[in-house]
Amino acid sequence: MRPSSIAKDAARRLPALGTALLLSLGLFAPAAQAAGTPGSAPAGSPAAPAAPAASTGKAAPRTIPVPKSPDTPEDARPLASDPRAKATAPTAGSSVGAAKSARQFSAAAACDVSAFTGKSGAALVQQVKSSGLDCVNTLFQLAGNDAKGAFNEAQMVTVANALRDTAATYPGNNSTSAGQLVLFLRAGYYVQWNNKDVVGPYGDGLKSAIRGALDAFYAAPHSKDVTDANGDTLAEAVTLIDSAQENARYTGVVKRLLNDYTGSWPAAMTTAVANTETVIERGFDLPEFVAALQADPSFATTAASFVTRNSSLINGGDLVTKIGIQLGNLVANDALRAQGRPILKDLINRYPLVGNTGPLTMNLLWFAEKKDVGNCSLYGTCDVPAKLVPLVLTVDHTCNANLRIRAQDMTAQQLADTCTSLINQDAFFHKVVKDGGPVANDNNTNLEVVAFDDYYNYSLYAWEMYKIEVDNGGMYEEGDPAKAGNQARFIAHEASWLRPQFQIWNLNHEYTHYLDGRYNMYGDFEAGMTTPTIWWVEGLAEYVSYSYRGEHYDAAVAQAAKGTYTLSTLFDSTYDNADSTRVYNWGYLAVRYMLQSHPQDVDALLAKYRAGDWNGARTLLKTTIGTSYDADFATWLKQCGADNCGSLPTNQAPLCTAADTRQFDKNCRRDNVAATTGNYSYSFLTLPAGVKQLTITTTGGTGNADLYYNAGSWATTGSYTAKSTTSGNGETLTITNPPAGYVFFSLYAQQGFGGATVTTTYN
Question: CA torsion, points 365, 366, 368, 369, in degrees to nearest 10?
Answer without folding.
Answer: 110
